[in-house]
Amino acid sequence: MIVRNLASSLVEAASCYPVVTLTGPRQSGKTTLCRAVFPSHRYVSLEQMRDRDYAAEDPGGFLREHSEGVIIDEVQRVPELLSWLQVEVDERPDPGRFILTGSQHFGLSAAISQSLAGRTAVLTLLPPSLEELKRFQSPSNDELMQMLWTGAYPRIHDRGIPADRWLADYISTYVQRDVREVLNVGDLRAFTTFVKLCAGRTACEVNLSALAGDAGITHNTAKAWLSVLETSYLCALIPAWHSNLRKRLVRRPKLHFYDSGLVCALLGIDSPEQLRHHPLRGALFESWVISEIIKQRLHSGRVAGVHHLRQARGLEVDAVVEDGGRVVMVEVKSGETIRKEHLGPLLRLSEQLRDSGEGRSLDPVLVYGGGELQRRSNATVLPWSRIEAGPWR
User: Fold this and answer.
1) pLDDT at site 85
2) CATH pick for 7-124 out of 3.40.50.300, 3.90.1150.10, 3.40.1010.10, 3.40.109.10
3) Is the model's pLDDT at 196 over the cut of 50?
C-alpha cells in the first residue's frame, strides 16, 4: 500500500465532523485509504446491488444498522440516502461516524451541499504525488520520461500492471460507464475523440470554439463535456490570476490533465523513449508540475489555489500560488540545462509586483528536468525529483 499524505487530514476531519466525505477520480485509492485509516469502521459498497437496494429501499434501517461507524463507498449511487443521513447526524452528531466516498463529484456535490452542509468535511484524493510514490519506490533522475509515461494511478505501481494496458482499460471504462451514466452521450466515439483532443491541449489555454470545431460538436456541447472531465477529476481548469498589475491580463483558464500517463495513453505515445522526442513533452511536463503542486496542497487538506498568468503582450508565468501574504511564482522547463533567459518571466513578474506596491512576500521557483537544486539570490531552481521541496504547501 502507498502511504498517503491525506491520512492525517482525514483523521483530523473525523475528530470534528460527524460525516467525512472523500472525493476524487476513480482508482485514486480512496477506498484503500479509508479502510486503512478507519479499520474499526464497517465497510459497505453501494456498487454492490444488494447493499444499494437496501440503502435505497430502507435508508432508515440501513443507517441504523451501520450507526456505530461505517465507510459507505460510492455513495453517489444512492443520493437520497444523504437526506436520511442529515436527520441521523442531527439527532446524534458524534464525530467520525460516517465516512463517505464518491468518484463522481458532479453527482455528489449537489446532494452534499443540499443535505450535509455544515455537517461534513469534504476532502479530495488524487492519484499519488511523487512524494507519496517515493515511499513505495525510488525514481532516479534519469527516469523522468518513464515516470511521466507511467503516470501515478496506484494499481499500476502496487500490482505491477503494465501502464499502457491499465490506462487503456481505464479510458475504456470511463467512457463506456461513467460518461454514459452522467451525460447519456449517444455517440461515444465523438466523446472519445473530444477527450483525445483535450489531451492534446494539456497546458494550453482553453478555446472552446476551436475545440468544438475540431471535435465537430457545438460550443455548448464542448462546454458541457469539458465540465464532465473537470468534475470527474481527469483534468483541471486553472483560472487566470487576478492582480492589480497595470498591464492587461488574458483571462482564459488553462487546461491541465492531472495524470501524465493518461495523456500519453490518450495520445498514443507508446514508450518513454517516444515521449522524450515528442512535441508535447514540454506541455506534459508542465501539466505534471502543476498537478504535483495541486496534489501537495489538496493532500494536506488545503484548497488548490493555483492560477496562471499571461499578459496580452509579453509576460507569461506557468503558475501563481497565492497563500496569504505570499506569492509563489512557478516557471516550468522540461530540459536538463538551465539558461539565464528561463528565469526572465519570474524576475519580470517579481519586479512588476514590487512596483505595484502590494508588499507581499515573493517566491520565484523554476522547476526543470535536471537534477541539481540551486538556491540562487533571485530564485530557487528546483529539480523535478525534489518537487516536494517547493514553497507552495
Assistant:
1) 94
2) 3.40.50.300
3) yes
